[in-house]
Amino acid sequence: MSLNGRYPFFCVAKKSKKLFRYFTSTFILFHNCFVYWKYIVIHTVIYWRRQQMNKIVAIVVVCGFTLAACGAKEETAVDQPITEKEVPILVEEPLHDEGQGAISVNGSVADEDQHIHEPDEHTTCEMCNMHVYEKNDAMGMFSTKAIKKDGTVIFYDDIGCLLNDEVAKNETNEKYVRDFNNLKWAKVEDVTIVKTTLKTPMNWGYAYFIEEQDARSYIGQNEGAYIEKLETIKVQAKMKYEQKMKQQGKMGDMPNNE
């Protein structure tokens, strides 16, 4: 009979000792694994945090150097005196050269392309000294104006005076008339001229239209109105002027009976 059979307690103790060793070894193994992985995790976190801190420190250092450099530049800009070259020099230039729309009225210079000059209540015709109607007057649409070569703006009460002033003074000006509808200024050569039955300041009876369609529309609505050529009006104006000069000459030749 074996020892295990004789002494059952001894067999149980022997098995218990083996189990104890097994569990002890297993526990030690798991414990070592836990410690090892804990070590790995802790050092990984520490390494990651160090990397993050290094990045943050690098960013802070770069920002600090940038701010310091900007501050140094600002101080240099403040302390540095302004030289003559750095001061912008504004040079007043005329809006247009002579002959390109520059005008002079009462010593002022402006851009006639904007037509800022208008007759006022004291304006008289350059040719006949009659009153020149303002833009908003009932007959203001018939007022005309011219720009001399020296840039001077002059006004007339009707187209006849506008044309005859050139004949009388033997000069050529830029001549403007008003559009019948919107009262805008336009060169007399660029408009459509319509002979009407309207009463005008010097009884010429002409209306002016920037758009030819507007002129034809007016003719269709007003019986007796028709389109007239500028050259025809120039001939008529010159004939009237010469006739007037002859009459004035005859009156000057008449004896004084006083």
UniProtKB/TrEMBL annotation:
Residue ranges annotated as transmembrane are 20-41, 53-69
Task: Read off the Pfam families from this record.
Answer: NosL
Q: What is this protein called?
A: Uncharacterized protein
Which keywords accompany this UniProt record?
A: Membrane, Transmembrane, Transmembrane helix
Say which domain of life the source belongs to: Bacteria
